[in-house]
Write a structure and sequence with these properties.
22 helices, 495 residues
Length: 495
């Protein structure tokens, strides 16, 4: 169990910056859904979605290429300079174009009044891409503490600026009129939702001094001889990431075009986007756990994959990953009413919570896929990652086209779960052909089936009283944990 404990420890370290950071950030969901109606937040849902697509384009697989080619300490410096140089060049070019042509871009996405936000996002995306490589270096060098401190500092700055712009500034204008002229120099109450994005931009700019040591070591270089194999390796990863982000973000990017007008009585399309976008955030807890695991697992898989004991180790990692994530799936789905009451302050947002269990299932299957994907990264068969993610992107696009006009935003969630399942199943099939791992398939299927059954039965017997719902569902979750312990007791006590 020693090597698994090490992985679990590193996952917990990165989880502090992801899980705890986002949990703190959830205070902002409470604030935003209290202050703003869904249509006011719709543009942000759209822009953050497009930013997710853009980040894949800006980094074009180079983060994973850095892990692959900079494993040896002797090569780390030259590949750090080479890969960061390429990312800076691409990021500056794309963001400059986006900044200059912000007005037509805003018109194209049907928010012509928000060209300023497009410009802000051009800067946010460039900084995100550039700092991705220094963060990758921290992960490769196992400097998890510094990684956590910087990430948490960023979250803290975002929260502080949101509170300043959305709470302090209006309070000053209301209760301290003598200071209102100073506040008016930078704050306009009629543009209050825009300051959410401005807070993100300022926090991103502060990444640069926090990563100054890593950036100071950087030298702009280019070597075609060194870059070509890195690019050959990274290109399928880039296409794979593009497919993966399409699988994850297609719904919010195209919901405004696929949802029939007046599908929801008394709700506009913008309101539907705002409701779905905020309800989607209730499923982020699962995604955060997967992301924390991924931060630790990617260098772990590369380091362990060369040993003869790698396949059984990977199988045990997968087993416990499934156990933990199925438990999260059940717990969040059963307590979704409580979470909605806590985080989605206005009742209008609660209209969309039926999407949450489906989204959680999608993240569960996607997390299993990330585990399975180690085989094509270790064998340099990254083209299979391309095939799989493009298949997933195709499935999610087709199912959105088919289901959204019938089911509304619930169709988005079902499409995401289905596409993630297809990717997972295909990745397992091909992985067993080229890099056999003795995964405990029966165990995994049993846990997933049991979790789905508990969630379904719970939905068939709704409890309207919030306190009774919390008590009953907590008891069900505790029973589930007891069953897991009884089944896995022998392995849990192994050393």
């Amino acid at each position: 169990m020693g090597i698994l404990k090490k992985l679990a420890g590193e996952t917990a370290t990165y989880g502090i910056s992801t899980m705890l950071g986002r949990l703190l950030n959830y205070l902002l969901v409470m604030l935003h859904t209290d202050l703003f109606l869904p249509h006011e937040l719709a543009v942000q849902v759209q822009l953050y979605t497009y930013a997710g697509f853009a980040l894949v384009l800006y980094t074009f697989g180079m983060e994973t290429a850095f892990f692959r080619f900079a494993r040896n300490e002797a090569d780390r410096g030259q590949y750090y300079n080479l890969i960061l140089s390429a990312v800076i060049l691409v990021s500056v070019c794309f963001s400059t174009w986006l900044y200059v042509f912000a007005e037509p871009v805003a018109q194209m996405i049907q928010y012509p009044q928000h060209s300023r936000l497009v410009r802000w996002f051009a800067l946010i995306m460039a900084i995100d891409a550039i700092v991705a490589i220094p963060f990758a270096r921290l992960r490769l060098e196992r400097k998890g503490l510094k990684f956590v401190i910087i990430r948490l500092s960023n979250i803290g700055i975002i929260i502080g600026l949101n509170l300043f712009f959305l709470v302090v500034c209006p309070a000053i204008q209301t209760y301290l009129p003598s200071l209102e002229p100073a506040v008016q120099l930078f704050y306009r109450p009629e543009q209050a939702p825009d300051y959410i994005i401005l807070a993100n931009l300022i926090a991103n700019l502060l990444f640069l001094p926090m990563l100054w040591k890593e950036l100071r070591q950087f030298r702009f270089v280019f070597s075609r001889k060194l870059f070509k194999p890195a690019w050959v390796y990274a290109f399928p990863i880039f296409i794979m990431n593009a497919g993966a982000v399409t699988n994850l973000l297609f719904d919010r990017a195209f919901l405004q075009y696929l949802l029939p007008p007046h599908f929801y009585p008394g709700r506009t399309t913008e309101e539907a986007i705002g409701i779905y976008g905020q309800c989607f955030k209730l499923s982020i807890f699962m995604n955060l756990a997967i992301q924390a695991f991924k931060y630790a697992a990617e260098p772990f898989f590369f380091a362990t994959g060369e040993t003869k004991n790698a396949p059984p180790i990977f199988a045990r990692v997968m087993k416990w990953f499934v156990v933990v994530c199925v438990t999260m799936w059940v717990a969040i789905s059963l307590q979704v009413d409580v979470l909605a009451a806590l985080f989605l302050k206005q009742k209008i947002y609660h209209e969309g919570i039926q999407v949450v269990p489906w989204l959680l299932a999608g993240f569960l299957f996607l997390g299993i896929y990330y585990n399975l994907a180690a085989w094509f990264k270790l064998t340099d068969k990254t083209r299979y990652g391309t095939y799989l993610t493009l298949t997933g992107a195709t499935v999610v696009a087709l199912l959105n086209l088919l289901l959204v006009p019938i089911l509304g935003y619930l169709g988005c969630a079902v499409a995401f779960a289905a596409s993630s399942f297809v990717m997972m199943a295909l990745c397992y099939y091909f992985g067993q052909r080229y890099y056999p791992v003795p995964y405990r398939v029966t165990s995994a299927l049993s846990y997933i089936t049991a979790g789905a059954a508990v969630i379904y039965l719970s939905s068939r017997f709704p409890i309207t009283d919030l306190y009774q719902s919390f008590a009953v569902h907590t008891a069900v979750i505790l029973v589930l944990l007891a069953v897991i312990y009884a089944v896995e007791r022998k392995e849990l006590v192994r050393r």
